[in-house]
Amino acid sequence: MTNKPLKSLNQDASLADIGRQLWQLWQLMKVHWRPLVIYPLLFGLVGLGVGVVLHTDKKKAEFIIAAEEQGASGMDGLLAQFGLDIGSSNPGGVFEGESLVRLFQIRSLVERSLLTTVDYHGKPTLLADLLWKDMKASKKSIFQGVKFLSDRSKHSSLTDSALYLAYRYVNDEVLSVSRPDKKQSFVTVSCAHRDPDVAMLLSETMIETVTEYYIETLTKKARYNLNVLRLEADSVQKVLNKNLQTNASMSDLNLNPLMQRARVGQNRSMIDLQISISLYGELIKNLKLAEIGLRKQTPLIQIIERPHYPLEQVGLRWWQYVMGGLGLGLALAFYLVYLGWLKSRSEIAA
């Protein structure tokens, strides 16, 4: 093998220089072919072993949702000046920003989703049963025979423990919720599972459960006020109807126009009727405003984009681990050959 040092290529390099460089490189590889073969094969086998153990065949169902975060509008402020309040879409900003992301990870909501009955291949099945069979805990003897029920009050302590493990499994390995852009209200909800149908069903159920809880929480006061106003309006309407009948009966009496004392009852019934009409009108107005406020707060979460089959693959495949091992082994072999060449050149120079 020639002992001339390898020249670096520059702007003035000719084709002869490039050919000479490649020839010297080829001669060097012929002498040190063993590490160039052994190291890639060795690292490729290691990559194959790692790929067999760590590779996943999970499919990801990713939804993009948006939640309203608007404050009081100009119309709301104008109505407030006249003492009218129709409510805001998110009073107090209870579930804004990262709090909405955290809402998807709350244990009670995840467990409520797991105990939801879904249509799996034409058969009604609990989500907890679909996920439980893939968990390592389901293989333990203590959990043999565990049966999840949609009515949690009928669960035993052992079933509740299994449900808690399923919640931890979903939070750690299946469910992923994030807000990529802090300046926008878009939230990404994704579930990764070997069964694409399970991933899709769990994502949809989680969004539905959180949406229901979202609406139930933020509209609780508005719905209570609306129900109270409806009861009061019904009561005042009954009084109004009664006053109408009383006033009509008093008007039918043939009273002496000179006897003013005899007209006291008729005037009293007229006053009661006017009060009932005014009170009923105010209640109807407030009832309509309460209905507008309730509609304004619903819905609070909207799906912007939903996944479609086939779902996206998650993680690296086994052959990708093998290719990575081959590349790493080849790079290490070239580095060792280069070090050996530098050492031999320094010995010759000495």
Describe this structure in words.
The model is unreliable at 1-11, 71-75 and 77-84 (pLDDT under 50). The protein has 3 domains: 15-55 and 316-349, no CATH class; 59-219 and 298-313, Bacterial polysaccharide co-polymerase-like; 222-296. A hairpin with a 2-residue loop joins strand 2 (117-120) and strand 3. It is built from 11 helices and 7 strands. The protein has helices spanning 15-31, 33-54, 74-81, 98-103, 107-114, 127-132, 157-174, 196-218, 220-252, 264-296, 318-349, and strands spanning 59-67, 117-120, 123-126, 175-178, 186-193, 301-305, 312-313. With 350 residues, it is of the alpha+beta class. Strands 1, 4, 5, 6 and 7 form a 5-stranded antiparallel beta sheet that branches. Helix 5 (107-114) crosses helix 7.
